[in-house]
Amino acid sequence: MEVQEAGDILEESVADLELPMETNNLPEEMSLAEEAMEVVINNVNCVFNMGTSGDIMLLFMAHSWHKETCLASAQALQDSEVISKLLLVKTAEFACVDRPHVERGISESRILYTERRNTEISERRLGEPPVENGLIPYLGCALQFGANPLEFLRARQKKYGHIFTCKIAGKYVHFLTDPFSYHSVIRQGKHFDWKKFHFSTSVKAFGHGSMDPNDGNTTENLHETFVKTLQGDSLSNLIEAMMENLQHAMLQSNALKVNSQDWFTDGLYAFCYRVMFEAGYLTLFGKELNSPKEKNFARQEAQRALILNALENFKEFDKIFPALVAGLPIHVFKNAYSARENLAKGLLHENLRKRDNVSDLISLRMFLNDTLSTFDDMGKAKTHLALLWASQANTLPATFWSLFYLIRSPEAMKAATEEVHNVLEKACHKISLNSTFISLNREQLDNMPILGSIIKEAMRLSSASLNIRVAREDFTLHLDNNDAYNIRKDDIVALYPQLMHLDPEIYNDPFMFKYDRYLNSNGTEKTTFYCNGRKLKYYYMPFGSGITKCPGRLFAVHEIKQFLTLLLSYFEMELVDKNVSCPSLDQSRAGLGILQPANDIEFKYKFKFVI
Ligand code: HEM
């Protein structure tokens, strides 16, 4: 057994990351361990993770979580009740955390480490990818990876080539970086289990029972449910409902009606978030019965207030989502916990039954929850909450990036405005606030390649998803260059498509927004991309890949197209500061999908047409 003081380990890791050690404010009598812990609270975040095998780990992620997450983690350290609970499930095999003195907060904290025994691969065996174990026992490379995944992986790619293994928080992850070899992971279904990881992540984050039929709570085939209700005819219904709900959310606001000739200033992200959340929520979960035709203004406003309340709860919950995925128990975050419970209460079947125009997805899931599962009422509601999150968490920032890049680029604005104008003209729509809502069907929206290219390009620049598969058994992975590597059962194989999205060999000037990057010279969608002169099968993967590819991807692109179309139709828009620099990507969600902007941008808008 290897035992190390927390202080030594943290000092090492902090030095490695070159973080400023804000020791000035520390009480003098604090020991080295206390100092190190204090640095963690000020500069680095820590997360307790209870893995499936009952291990506890203290994971320090440099600058990668929100301040709130960091503070809540620090609180957890000081909260003897939480620590005791964690200790109850510890196994000596991995790590344990001494109970700190409550009165002194985190003093005398000490971390004991033992190395993983069963699947230890710190020694590279013949035929396995090169391994990087990192400097810190158990954590391995977690700190450096968490601080900047793209830079971390690029540096290893340069050093090791197409595949390498990193120890991250006790797990061995094989990163495959060659896009020509992606198919060997995406297509090798029989060697990989994708369900275990997805199902357990959902349980951890949303608090419902396992949706894995093997665990006996339900016999629903979720994949089938998603395909049936998010694609085909159901997709057309979603698009139709979204078109109406978007206009409802955009145009019915009190202030806008009164001052329709004025410029309004708002945060661009705040605006996208509000409009898309409201419209998306109503589209999936329907409206209160009879309300669409309800003339009573006060009643409509009451409905809106409820949705805005759900939006605030969603924000609070979503903020700590990365920490939940990492394994921190939700009880540590009191506000996020009550936000999650409130959201779920709104999605209880008894409440959903009072709503009209509930989507096929939610109607079918309600039926299957009631007939095929043993979940209790709150458990069922939390399965719907998982879908609320899936439908919004990536769409909201993707909408922001699409609109931000569009407004900032005069050529994109011109081309997109013309495309929208042409489509509306063909559909014989005249824009005025007195006329009925604009309605464009799926086919008409599909016929808008410029908006399509803008959205794709915005997502290429902001997506950072991690595609994960777990090896079912020991097997040999064959790469495109005919190299073969042995993979051990339970190891993780990961693709990080951001490496490909920002590869200058594939995309010229990869950090630049080019609105027509995904257009051929004749204006049709471009689907041919090359790397070193060879045509790529995989060149764009913000929606994941293979069996786990996002089932809502078609709806997602359509709803963002609808949002942009309506904005361009109804409003003049400008950035308040035309030379504003592009917000940086908030890396705290790297691995989870579309990254959020680190800060909001002010924009102004006014109606194009006076009533
Ligand atoms: C820009 C918007 C979106 C992006 C970038 C996105 C991306 C993703 C990604 C990367 C995954 C995981 C794939 C994997 O693990 O390999 C996923 C899963 C999923 N997405 Fe999306 N998504 C978006 C919008 C939506 C929407 C609008 C819906 C539904 C209305 C949706 C429903 C789902 C569901 C249900 C899953 C889980 C699928 C499963 O586990 O079988 N997504 N999405």
From TrEMBL:
Needed cofactors: heme
Molecular function, one GO term: cholesterol 7-alpha-monooxygenase activity
Enzyme nomenclature, EC number: 1.14.14.23
UniProt binding sites for substrate: 204, 394
Annotated localization: Endoplasmic reticulum membrane; Microsome membrane
Pathway(s) per entry: Lipid metabolism; bile acid biosynthesis
GO biological process, one term: cholesterol homeostasis
One Pfam family of this chain: p450
Entry binding sites for heme: 550
Protein name: cholesterol 7alpha-monooxygenase
EC class of the enzyme, as a word: oxidoreductase
Major localization class: endoplasmic reticulum
InterPro entries: Cholesterol_7a_monooxygenase, CYP450_sterol_14alpha_dmase, Cyt_P450, Cyt_P450_CS, Cyt_P450_CYP7A1-type, Cyt_P450_E_grp-IV, Cyt_P450_sf
Keywords, comma-separated and alphabetical: Cholesterol metabolism, Endoplasmic reticulum, Heme, Iron, Lipid metabolism, Membrane, Metal-binding, Microsome, Monooxygenase, Oxidoreductase, Steroid metabolism, Sterol metabolism
Family named by the database record: Belongs to the cytochrome P450 family.
Cellular component terms per the entry's GO annotation: endoplasmic reticulum membrane
